[in-house]
Amino acid sequence: MAKVYNIGGAGFDSNIYLILDDVIALVDAGTGMNFGSVRRNLAKFGLKPSDVELVINTHCHFDHAGGDRDFVEAGCEVAIHELEAEPLRRGDRRVTLAEGFNGQLGPIEVSRELREGDCIELGELALEVLHTPGHTAGSICLHERGRGLLFSGDTVFCGGVGRVDLPTGDAAAMLRSLRKLIELEVHRLMPGHGPVAESFADKYIRAAYRLAKDELL
Ligand SMILES: [Zn+2]
Ligand SMILES: [Zn+2]
User: Which ligand is the nearest neighbour of the Cα of 135?
Assistant: First the structure.
């Protein structure tokens, strides 16, 4: 049976979700500054970086995509929303925030550009791409309908919403994105940072929407 584990979160790294299915995939890859720790966590599952076939980035920020390069070098493919493919390909230090993290980004090869409604088939799990701009213009959430699972990147956390004051951020778009997420059947929330909600994800999403309405407008 397909399983999902968080193998990230060290230092400034985002959460890194390891999906063990017919296709072995990651949702986000952290900064790359703690690659040793990511490698050790993979080894606990008997895996090497080269066993990961696909890294799906929720957006292009350095704390989520900086680690892509190590996986690309290991032969893995990278998928990201079409609006955020260019910043990775040209190694844009401002839009990706690599500058702020004082990190090395370098050009990252993107093999798959994602759009609203795309479906990433991993085997038992199928991730539907939801374009949820607001934190960045090309932020996405990934919805697994069968399991009621949502990978929410930096759009929604368990107890908050993502910043909208960074390059390409947009408060009104964030509110529209949160409204869209409220409509989903979601039980488990797997955000880009902080704890995972094993149940009641819909409550966190509604709370995030109310918070955003109060704070952003
Ligand atoms: Zn971010
Ligand atoms: Zn982040």
Answer: 1
> How many angstroms separate the alpha carbon of residue 97 from the centre of ligand 2?
10
Report how far apart the first and last C-alpha atoms of the chain are (Å, whole number): 43
Ligand 2 centre to CA of 22 (Å) is 27
Question: In angstroms, what is the span from residue 1 Cα to ligand 1's centroid?
Answer: 31
Please give the distance, rounded to the nearest whole angstrom, from the Cα atom of residue 53 to the centre of ligand 2. 22
Domain count, the chain: 1
For residue 67, the CA-to-ligand 1 centroid distance in Å is 14
Tell me how far the alpha carbon of residue 67 lies from the centroid of ligand 2, in angstroms: 13
Per residue of the chain (217 residues), give pLDDT as tens: 899 999 998 999 999 999 999 999 999 999 999 999 999 999 999 999 999 999 999 999 999 999 999 999 999 999 999 999 999 999 999 999 999 988 888 899 999 999 999 999 999 999 999 999 999 999 999 999 999 999 999 999 999 999 999 999 999 999 999 999 999 999 999 999 999 999 999 999 999 999 999 987 6
The bound ligand whose nearest atom lies closest to the alpha carbon of 166 is 1
Enumerate residues 6+ apart whose C-beta is below 8 A from 156.
141, 162, 178, 181, 189, 191, 204, 205, 208
**Domain range enclosing 151:** 3-216
Report the CATH number at residue 168.
Answer: 3.60.15.10
